[in-house]
User: What shape does this take?
Amino acid sequence: MPLYFIAILPHSALRNEIRSLKEEIKKYTGAKKSLNSPAHITIQRPFRRDNEFEVKLINDLQLFAAKQKSFTVNISGFGCFEP
Assistant: This one.
Protein backbone atom coordinates (compact mmCIF):
# COMPACT_ATOMS: atom_id res chain seq x y z
CA MET A 1 0.00 0.00 0.00
CA PRO A 2 1.27 3.49 -0.83
CA LEU A 3 2.41 5.83 1.93
CA TYR A 4 0.83 9.32 2.12
CA PHE A 5 1.16 12.37 4.30
CA ILE A 6 -0.53 15.75 4.13
CA ALA A 7 1.59 18.85 4.66
CA ILE A 8 1.94 22.55 4.00
CA LEU A 9 5.09 23.51 2.11
CA PRO A 10 6.72 26.88 2.81
CA HIS A 11 7.74 29.11 -0.09
CA SER A 12 10.71 27.91 -2.14
CA ALA A 13 13.27 30.34 -0.67
CA LEU A 14 12.56 29.09 2.84
CA ARG A 15 12.54 25.46 1.68
CA ASN A 16 15.98 26.00 0.14
CA GLU A 17 17.29 27.63 3.32
CA ILE A 18 16.02 24.71 5.40
CA ARG A 19 17.49 22.22 2.92
CA SER A 20 20.90 23.88 3.40
CA LEU A 21 20.53 23.52 7.17
CA LYS A 22 19.63 19.83 6.77
CA GLU A 23 22.70 19.31 4.58
CA GLU A 24 24.89 20.94 7.23
CA ILE A 25 23.39 18.77 9.98
CA LYS A 26 24.02 15.69 7.84
CA LYS A 27 27.64 16.74 7.34
CA TYR A 28 28.29 16.92 11.08
CA THR A 29 26.04 14.15 12.39
CA GLY A 30 25.52 11.73 9.51
CA ALA A 31 21.74 12.17 9.89
CA LYS A 32 20.38 12.00 6.37
CA LYS A 33 16.79 10.80 6.71
CA SER A 34 15.46 14.36 6.94
CA LEU A 35 16.63 14.88 3.35
CA ASN A 36 13.97 12.40 2.15
CA SER A 37 11.22 15.03 2.17
CA PRO A 38 11.08 18.77 1.58
CA ALA A 39 10.73 21.17 4.51
CA HIS A 40 7.08 21.09 5.53
CA ILE A 41 4.50 21.48 8.28
CA THR A 42 2.78 18.15 8.80
CA ILE A 43 -1.01 18.27 8.81
CA GLN A 44 -1.50 14.49 8.78
CA ARG A 45 1.40 12.22 9.66
CA PRO A 46 2.23 9.37 7.25
CA PHE A 47 -0.45 6.77 6.67
CA ARG A 48 -1.06 3.92 4.25
CA ARG A 49 -4.11 3.38 2.04
CA ASP A 50 -4.87 1.32 -1.04
CA ASN A 51 -4.26 2.75 -4.53
CA GLU A 52 -7.92 3.64 -5.12
CA PHE A 53 -7.84 6.01 -2.17
CA GLU A 54 -5.43 8.40 -3.93
CA VAL A 55 -7.94 9.69 -6.51
CA LYS A 56 -10.47 10.49 -3.77
CA LEU A 57 -7.80 12.06 -1.55
CA ILE A 58 -6.56 14.35 -4.33
CA ASN A 59 -10.08 15.36 -5.29
CA ASP A 60 -11.11 16.08 -1.68
CA LEU A 61 -7.95 18.08 -0.98
CA GLN A 62 -8.39 20.14 -4.16
CA LEU A 63 -11.99 20.95 -3.22
CA PHE A 64 -10.93 21.87 0.30
CA ALA A 65 -7.95 23.99 -0.83
CA ALA A 66 -10.04 25.90 -3.37
CA LYS A 67 -12.18 27.26 -0.53
CA GLN A 68 -9.29 28.37 1.69
CA LYS A 69 -7.87 31.86 1.97
CA SER A 70 -4.14 32.42 2.10
CA PHE A 71 -2.60 32.80 5.55
CA THR A 72 0.70 33.58 7.22
CA VAL A 73 2.58 31.06 9.33
CA ASN A 74 5.28 32.11 11.76
CA ILE A 75 7.84 29.35 12.14
CA SER A 76 9.93 28.93 15.27
CA GLY A 77 12.07 25.83 15.58
CA PHE A 78 11.54 22.38 14.15
CA GLY A 79 10.81 18.84 15.20
CA CYS A 80 10.14 15.31 14.03
CA PHE A 81 8.08 12.22 14.71
CA GLU A 82 9.88 9.58 16.71
CA PRO A 83 10.71 6.43 14.70
